[in-house]
Hints:
This protein is of the alpha/beta class.
Amino acid sequence: MLPGEDDNAVPIPKRNILPILINSHDELMVDGELIEISNLKGLTIAFLDNGGDQLECDYCQGEGNPESSDNPDKAIVSLMNNRETSYGMYVTVQNELVAAYNFLRNRESQRLYKTDFHAMQKLYKNPSTSQVIKKELKDRIRTIQKLFPMKLSEAERN
């Protein structure tokens, strides 16, 4: 065990991990099934938004599948690529995963604040935005990020 590791770490239930593998031929496998890149965003959204534990995620709109994630805070996307995976495929997969999070964050931002999540981020970063507005935006951005935290684990596989 490495220094600083917790001896009492609670194991993560398999249902809360979405395993994604890109092999050396740039083939994409999600949860043991070969898929097309065009399906990755939708599968990721379904996993993150599943809401298997409705008591913890009353804002989730997924199926509530007991075999999938309990809630977005517990959901981990595990991306593993082969050393020979092309950089282009790796970036494409990353973009699809980010797009899934962005979709869900935008949905919740619209629901709670009637505005786009990215519009809030852009306004927050604008130097001409007043400090009063920036504080409000910062609080709203953090709220959305807590609803759908980006938990992405990456590893390279030989």
